[in-house]
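pls design
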């Protein structure tokens, strides 16, 4: 029971702006939760039908070490008893936010899809003025993500049946779930991922505002080489000394936090070919999934590559 509640709780709303979003809905052997963007549900061995407040419900079940009894009281509260432990969980009648799966079914390779989303997720942006920067585009057999400074593409093999744009929230939920989905159910405005365990996760689809000829962005001539392993060590050492702009200046085998060599801190690299002005945090995105790169192309776009992965990195212009 606790595992089912934990699964659904990932979609619990933080604030009750929409009725029912801070509560579970337990009905027809399923426990559901939604925050208005994503909805999650899992099978649960309960015959009772109610909408208990989610957070205290999870805490109460976590305290149940013996056989557990759940009873819906006349006052509308859910009574939980396990050995010497008892708890009364407030319930609500406002369950309008909860939704059901809908749309046409498609078989998918969920493991490949989740790997793709997990790989490009670090490149998802937070700029609300460019909503596509806060999403992952699934197109053909690839996943794309951008933060408007980098753009990454991961090939996951099996073509996805439809082009869809997943919100960053949906991507986070998919990666967090320990199980890979086996089917997708799709409408114009939503997608539901189904799991062999009987669980499902439904998400609102974002409008596709991605560039139509996105693959042309990767047509950059480059000569990628293995990334200097000292680069990421240097960035970690220099981060406390960076200015508010978060820039680093790289030339002649040295990374600096300031344009003026007499200020800030610096670190010497092994590779003297890297040059340019970059955002420190953006360069750090290359650490875990990127094997080779061409960081000599500045001020033109630089390239990076990993397993089934390619991307473009923009440097920054010197301020006048």
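designed seq:
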């Amino acid at each position: 029971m606790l595992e089912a509640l934990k699964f659904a709780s990932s979609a619990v709303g933080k604030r009750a702006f929409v009725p029912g979003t801070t509560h579970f809905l337990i009905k027809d052997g399923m426990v559901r939760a939604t925050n208005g963007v994503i909805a999650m549900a899992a099978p649960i061995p309960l015959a009772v039908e109610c909408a208990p407040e989610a957070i205290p419900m999870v805490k109460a079940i976590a305290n149940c070490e013996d056989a557990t009894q759940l009873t819906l009281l006349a006052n509308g509260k859910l009574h939980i008893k396990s050995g010497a432990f008892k708890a009364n969980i407030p319930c609500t009648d406002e369950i309008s936010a909860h939704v059901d799966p809908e749309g046409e079914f498609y078989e998918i390779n969920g493991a490949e899809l989740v790997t793709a989303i997990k790989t490009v997720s670090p490149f998802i942006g937070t700029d609300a003025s460019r909503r596509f920067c806060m999403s992952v585009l699934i197109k053909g057999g690839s996943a794309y993500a951008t933060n408007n400074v980098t753009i990454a593409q991961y090939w996951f093999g099996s073509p996805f049946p439809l082009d869809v744009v997943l919100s960053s929230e949906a991507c986070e939920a998919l990666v967090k779930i320990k199980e890979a989905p086996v089917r997708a159910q799709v409408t114009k405005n939503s997608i539901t991922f189904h799991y062999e365990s009987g669980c499902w996760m439904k998400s609102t689809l974002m409008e596709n505002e991605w560039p139509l000829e996105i693959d042309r962005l990767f047509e950059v001539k480059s000569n990628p080489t293995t990334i200097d392993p000292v680069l990421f060590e240097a960035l970690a050492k220099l981060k406390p000394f960076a200015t508010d702009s978060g820039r680093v200046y790289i030339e002649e085998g040295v990374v600096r936090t300031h344009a003026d060599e007499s200020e800030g801190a610096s670190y010497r690299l092994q590779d003297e070919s890297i040059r340019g002005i970059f955002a420190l945090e953006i360069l750090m995105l290359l650490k875990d999934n990127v094997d080779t790169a061409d960081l000599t192309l500045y001020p033109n776009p630089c390239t990076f590559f990993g397993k089934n992965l390619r991307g473009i990195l923009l440097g920054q212009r010197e301020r006048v």
